[in-house]
Specification:
By secondary structure, the protein is mainly β. It folds into 2 domains: 58 residues, no CATH class; 117 residues, Sandwich (Immunoglobulin-like), CATH 2.60.40. The chain has 1 helix and 14 strands; from the N terminus they run E-E-E-E-H-E-E-E-E-E-E-E-E-E-E. The strands form 4 sheets. Strands 5, 6, 7, 9 and 12 form a 5-stranded antiparallel β-sheet that branches. Strand 13 and strand 14 form a beta hairpin. The chain is elongated.
Length: 193
């Protein structure tokens, strides 16, 4: 009996089974594999804990998988900094490994009253949103101020957005849409001094 190697989040583990191979699989000291070459339709993935069935065939090519390597997977927001009639939020876009991006990222940001129904706020603050780090592509305004921005980060995935509200109304959140994932991330409620 030989071992069938199964890929899991924790690495490769050996399970009892039968496998045919034209060459031996050599594992490093950490039970890792430096290079693994598979037939183009040979990789199948089965959910952890599932012991029956062949799993789901991976049909993407290596090039299609690698395109995701340079995508922004998440955005982290610093706690909003309260200033005189301003609330400042710093954004950092990160890749799937949690590392800050090494390229500019396009995104959308808007003010919302709710994180459960994140529609653009209809009662805009006095001046609204501006960007102090990164660049503005376009803005959406109401009769009183800017309520939404399409922006682009710096070359290292950073942006800073400032909301100016002379009424100091602490009832808005900043919502940011990551176009690569479709996920919306929210700041804490914007406060002012």
């Amino acid at each position: 009996m030989s071992l069938l190697y199964v890929f899991q989040k924790s690495g490769i583990c050996g399970l009892a089974g039968v496998a045919k191979a034209s060459a031996a699989l050599v594992l490093g000291a950490n039970k890792d594999v430096d290079t693994l070459t598979l037939h183009h339709d040979g990789l199948r993935i089965r959910d952890h804990g599932v012991t029956t069935g062949n799993g789901v065939a991976v049909t993407t090519t290596a090039a299609e998988l690698n395109i995701n390597a340079d995508m922004a997977a998440s955005v982290s927001m610093a706690t909003p900094v309260a200033g005189t009639h301003t609330a400042t939020v710093a954004l950092t876009f990160k890749d799937a490994a949690g590392v800050a991006m090494t390229r500019a990222v396009e995104f959308k940001a808007w003010l919302t009253k709710s994180i459960t129904a994140p529609v653009i706020t209809t009662n805009a603050p006095s001046a609204g949103l501006t960007m102090t780090v990164g660049g503005v592509i376009s803005i959406d305004t109401t009769n009183t101020g800017t309520v939404a921005i399409s922006g682009v980060t710096t070359a290292v995935g950073l942006a800073t957005i400032v909301n100016t509200d002379n009424a100091n109304a602490a009832d808005n959140y900043l919502a940011v849409l990551n176009p690569a994932t479709g996920r919306i991330t929210y700041s804490a409620v914007l406060t002012y001094t």
